[in-house]
Structures are given as C-alpha cells and as structure tokens.
Amino acid sequence: MASEEGKTMEGRIHKSYFDVLGLCCPSEVLLIEKILKPLEGIQKVSVIIPSKTVIVLHDTLQISQLQIVNALNEARLEASIRADGGQKIISKWPNSYIIACGLLLIVSLFHKFFHPLKWLALAAVVVGLPQIIMRSIAAIRRCTLDINILMLIAVGGAVALGDYLEAGFVVFLFTMAEWLESMASHKATSGMAALMSMAPQKAILADTGQVVNAKDIKVGTVIAVKAGEVIPIDGIVVEGRGDVDERSLTGESFPIAKQPQSLVWAGTLNIDGYISVKTTALAEHSAVAKMAMLVEEAQNSRSRTQRMIDSCAKYYTPAVVLISAGVAVVPLVMRAHNQKHWLQFALVLLVSACPCALVLSTPVAIFCALLKAARTGLVVKGGDILEALAKTKIVAFDKTGTITKGEFTVVELWTLSNDVNTNTLLFWISSIESKSSHPMASALVNHARLNSIEPKPELVNDFQIYPGEGVSGDINGKKIYIGNKRIAMRAGCMEAGPVGEEIKEVVTVGYVLMGTLLVGFFTLSDTCRTGAKECIEELKSMGIKSALLTGDSVAAAMQAQKQLGDAIEEIHAELLPEDKVSRLSDLKTRVGPTTMVGDGMNDAPALAKADVGISMGVSGSAVAMETSHITLMSNDIRKIPKAIRLARSTQSKIIVNVTFSIVTKIAILGLAIGGHPLLWAAVLADVGTCLIVILNSMMLLQTKGYKEKQCHTRSNNHKINSPAQCFQEQATSKLKARDEHSVKIVCEEDSHRDESCLKHSSEAVDCGEKPDGDEIVFKTSNIWRGVVKEDAGSYRERKKEDCQRTECSSLQAGKNKRQTGACCRSYRKECMSREACCGSGMIQVPEIIID
C-alpha cells in the first residue's frame, strides 16, 4: 500500500520551467525564493540568472503552473510558462513606456530654448517609473533590498533636488539597459534552450505508421525514421541504411554512415535513407536527456569564485547603503556647506551599492562556457570543474578504449594441455567472457563465432569479475580463470608468463587456467585512436605533461607508446584500480593539478580521485560517466585540449569581467569624490557594465570561421576535396530553417532527366573537369547520398569518358567555367586554395552549388 502511494506521489511531482524576464539582478533570486518556497506543494526552486529561468519542482495537485506564474507576476517579474521544447519570446523593440520616456527626454533637452520643456523630463520619470515602483513594493513586502529599491530612492532624491533631467535619464537608462540585457541574455541562452529540447516529442511506429508520444514508447519498440527526421529515442538500427548527423550530440562535423546493428542516438538527424530503429532506452533515459540533465545541474551549481563573490556582495550592499545614508545625513545635521552636493554624492553612492555586474561576472561566463562545451560534445558538470580544468598541469590517460580504440583482434590462441583442444578452450573462453562488458571480451566472443563456436553463457555459474585482473566462472564442472598474470596468481599458478618467441611483439597476452593449471593463452592486438598523438602533442604545446596509467602489460604499454611516437612522458603499467589512484596522488604531489581520462569501470576510482575526471561518453561505462566530472560524448580524444583551452578562456573572461566591474565602480566613486557626482553616469556604469559583462562572456560562444569550418581535416587526415562535403553541412542547417531549398545541379544534356544524375551527385570520378551541361533546379532532398547505387556504374563510366576528353584549362570561356563549375575556380572559392581541393584531381559529378 505504501509503495502504491509512493508511485502515485511520484507521478504527481512535476518539473516546470518558467521564463522570468524581470529577473535582472542576482539580488532578485532571494525575492523569487521568498515568493515560491512558502507556497504549499513547492518542493524545490532553482534560479538560473543568465538565462532568466526559474525551475520549480512541485506537486501538481497542490499547486499548478498558472498559480506559480501568478505568484511571480504579483511582484511584476514578467513570468510565463515555458512550453516543452519552447523558447522565451523577446520583443525586438523596447516597450512603449521606454520609447515614450526616451522621446520625452529628447524633447526636454531643448529647455534652454523654451524653459517649460524641462517639465517633460518629469513626465518621462512619471512614464517610466511605475514598473520600478511595483517591483520595489514587492521587494519591500518581502524584506529584500534589490536594485529597484535603490533606483527608486535615487530617482526620488534627484526629483527632490530639482534635477528632473537627471532623474529622467536615470529611469530611461535603467529600463533601456534592462531590455538590452534581456536581448543579450536571450541570444546567449537560445542555444541552451535548443540543446535541452533536441529530441522530438513524437515518434512513428514502424509496423503501423502510427504517430505516438516519444515518452510513451517502451524499450524494444521498433520505430521508423525517414530522411530529414530527427531520431526521437536511442536505439539500434535493425533495417535500412542512412547517414546520420550527430553534431548536436557529439560535435562531429561529418555525418556517420549507419547500417543494421549500428547505434543511433536521440536528437541526431537522419540526413538520408530510411531506417528502422529498435529502442534501447526510454525517452527520459536517452543520451540527450542525460546530457540535458547534466547541463541543467551544472547551471544550478556555483563555482568557488562565484560563491566568494556572492559572499562579499552579501555584505557590500548593506555597507554601502549605510555609508550613503551617513553621507546624506551627517552634513545636514552639521549644516555643512553645499548640502546639495553631499546629497548628490550620497545618491551616487546608493546607486553604486548594487553589485549586479560584479555578481554576474562569473555565472554568465560559466553559462556561456557550458553551452559552448555542450555544442562541441563535452558535458561539464559545473563551474568548479572548469576552474579546476584551467589549472591542469598533467593529463593521465587510461590505455584501452581511451588512447587505443578498444577494438581488439584475436591474433592467436594456443592450448597447452593435451586434454583440452582449441575448440573446447575457445568455447570455455567465449561462454564466460560473454558475461563481461570489457572490450577484450567482445573480441574473444566474436572470434569464437567466426570459428563456428556459439557461446553458451547459460552454462556458466559463479561468474566473477576481478578488476584489473580478469574473470572467472564454473563451466562443465570446471573452474576457469581468464585474464592477465594477476589472475594466474589468484588461481594459484606461479609459472604463468610469456610462452615462446612468437609473442614478443604482440600487444596483449591473456591466460586461461583450469583451477591452478595453465591450459592455454591467447594474444590480442589493438591500435591507437586517430588523433591520440595530436592530442598529446597539443597538450605538450600548452605546457601540460601527459602520463599513461594502464592495467595492461608493460609490453602493451610500450607498444602504444611506440605508435604515439614516444609522445607520452610517463608510463605506468600493470596497475590495479587502487594503484591508479595512488599514482594520481603521486602525480598531483610532484607535478600539480591532474586530469584523468578513462572509459571503463576500472577507471572509476581514478576518475573520482583526479582534480578533473573525463570519461569517454560513447564507449565509456555508466559508472565511469557517473563518477567523472566531464563526459566526452564522442570518441574524439582531440577535444580534451580544446576543453582545457575553453576552461582557460573562461577563467580569463571571469578575471576581465570582475576587474572591469570593480574598476568602473571605483571610477564613478572617484568622479564623485573629485566633485563630479553624476547620477546618470553612476546608473550607466552599473547597468552598462552588466551589459558589457554579458557581451564579453558571449565571445566564448564564437565558433570557427566559415571557410575554416568547411575545409577542416577529417578524422582520418583526408583533406576535403568534394564540394558536396562542403555543401552538405551548409544545406543541413538551411533545411532546418525551411522545408524546401533549391540547388543547381549540372547534368549532361542527354541525361538531365536521368534519376541517377540526382541520386549519385556526390559520386567522385577521377578527372579534372566536367563536361558542358544544362543547369536544372531541384530540391535539396533529392541530392543526398546513401540511395540505391546498383544503376550508377554505367553513369559513372560515361561521365568519366566525357571528363577525360575535357581539360581543366584556365583559358576556358568565363560562361563555360561558370556553367560547369570548373575545379580551378569554384573549388578554390570553397576551400581557399586550388591545391587543397583540386590537387588530387577528384571532382564531383555533377557539382552541387548553393543557390
């Protein structure tokens, strides 16, 4: 009964998202918490200042979303409910009150020519002040001192002193800057909103074609994904082929070919082809959902710098308010000379009491950095992690699945017992290893199947995993141990070691024991990941050392070092999980802050011990992803130096923001002390600095230039020589903007109606130029790759013959060159140099040109 009640309660708890446009100052976080937390049914309130978002966990039977919005809007916070997958709507123009206030001020500037116009400045105050008054009342009711109260006092003081024009400018500058700040925040956070809602809400059942809610689909359901659609749930392809753009999740620029048994992820785009996907997770447990959850948690966490600044701000505002009150009152009591000057000085101090820019300097920069990281396939679990990553002095790598691909191949298998033949040995190994998730296990199981031996894990009893050693299990009444030297020692065999000269150069050696008797051994090979060497060399150029921590043999570690060109500076082999932890402690003592990169369960303790732990998201285990601080959503290890550069850039931005915020405050106070207490300048310095801090932080979101992005190197170091490759990335983004996008496809006159001209527009032939042809306009959806290729052979041969009769000459007529899109001309325009795209003589037939 209690369990049923618990499930019912869990079903009633809902997480709601609200856009709060009136959230302009960190001091208003306290106001929002005081409004919502006392309400019945509210369980948790989270406020994200940079995105002006409030996240509320509440009981839907006790309090609705509308009631929460009404409570916030009583304080004039301009709150609204954010729909699933929606983004907040920001007006492109200031509201009518701000515009009217500005126009009245402009006219009032001519009061020297017509004195009564000075009253228009007071009218500007009356027009723009009501919103500030209402927010101030709400703050006073909840005993909160915020920027609105300070501005209200400043405006009231200026009016009392007869400085109507200055009071009008204070109101106008404050309201206008708030709107500009909202626009800047919206631009900075729109990408985060898209990230949080990448996966579609609907899915199509493959058997019936019925459209259903993605959240209602159970594991094992087969769904259909057509060309141009976003995959709604994680799964495995069971039918069809296609190219999938995984950039939104992993940051990879090029589409990945998918075929039966390939894994696909929610939120990625099926560019071409029709695929049937068998779901492997619920919608709420998909990779993109986990990514969004981690990013959201990271936004809610505060870095050490932010906590320190917030602590200082807590005392700064009351202290400055008391000082400004003293500056105003003491001269009046002492009947000092020029009391108006002292009152103006007090008002400037009062406006300076708001530390908005200083408090925003850290969270906005961190927010932009988290968004930038997520866009490139890096999920960082908070600002503290970025601060620690920026200080990294040494990066330690695991070997299997991190430095190497983790895609083992069985080289050889030997039996050492006359009573056990090779097939029996392989049957034992594959049956026991089929219960393990280690990369070596899958290689051994696959090797057995290639030799027509089907594993039977159901025959295995008492299966056990020994981290850093191997596995064991009972099969056919025999206790079998499989693993490295340590597993042999555990089994009680002290004579295990390399057998024979033939295995000296092999990467990894495994032993098979029946009880205490060594009955066989096997050898496996693995290769280093593409980009591993570049990653380590780039780290070295940044002044960061590298180390290899592996549980594999010394020979395997040295083989990896050889493949990397001796780039790693320290190598530690044959380590147990606890040994990796102790080595990390030693590195931290000797070198400095450490970052650990790993993918397996054996790495989890080391990932948790390091100052920063980075797990490989695609190949990594769930435990490693849970204990790590950063998750790499792809297997591109070259993103690790990029992550460190991003962390360092973020630290630089925070330092600049904090310094600029403090200097502007000091400058305004210096002017006031020097006899120039300018109230409007103090307001401009306060809200203007907030805007500059946001804009400066947004520079972290800048991406690579257009040409650099179009022509960067593939993961296999093959230079782009295809306009279709350059085109595909552009057209994908354009397709998201509108359904139909025209392209020009150049075809032969006698074959422009041939469908193969469209189907195989990205097929490359070995020639230097295309023949003349007619320009025909088609839809983009007709030119993607991955369609049936059986009828393409004769077409390619015909085109090749035509190409060979034509020379790529710069003396061709301009019209002919424009029509045929000569490699010498248009390729250079796409990729900056003729050699980069035309050097190999490979061109596209027909050429695809953005319309």
UniProtKB/TrEMBL annotation:
PANTHER family: CADMIUM/ZINC-TRANSPORTING ATPASE HMA2-RELATED, CADMIUM_ZINC-TRANSPORTING ATPASE HMA4-RELATED. NCBIfam families: ATPase-IB2_Cd, ATPase-IB_hvy, ATPase_P-type. GO terms for molecular function: ATP binding; ATP hydrolysis activity; metal ion binding; P-type cadmium transporter activity; P-type zinc transporter activity. InterPro entries: ATPase_P-typ_cyto_dom_N, ATPase_P-typ_P_site, ATPase_P-typ_TM_dom_sf, ATPase_P-typ_transduc_dom_A_sf, ATPase_P-type_domA, Cation_Transport_ATPase_IB, HAD-like_sf, HAD_sf. It comes from Apostasia shenzhenica. It comes from the Eukaryota. Belongs to the cation transport ATPase (P-type) (TC 3.A.3) family. Type IB subfamily. One of its GO terms (cellular component) is membrane. The lineage of its organism: Eukaryota, Viridiplantae, Streptophyta, Embryophyta, Tracheophyta. It holds the Pfam family Hydrolase. Keywords: ATP-binding, Cadmium, Hydrolase, Membrane, Metal-binding, Nucleotide-binding, Translocase, Transmembrane, Transmembrane helix. Its EC number is 3.6.3.3, 3.6.3.5. It catalyses: Zn(2+)(in) + ATP + H2O = Zn(2+)(out) + ADP + phosphate + H(+); Cd(2+)(in) + ATP + H2O = Cd(2+)(out) + ADP + phosphate + H(+). This is Cadmium/zinc-transporting ATPase HMA2. It is a multi-pass membrane protein. It is found in: Membrane. Residues 14-80 form the HMA domain.
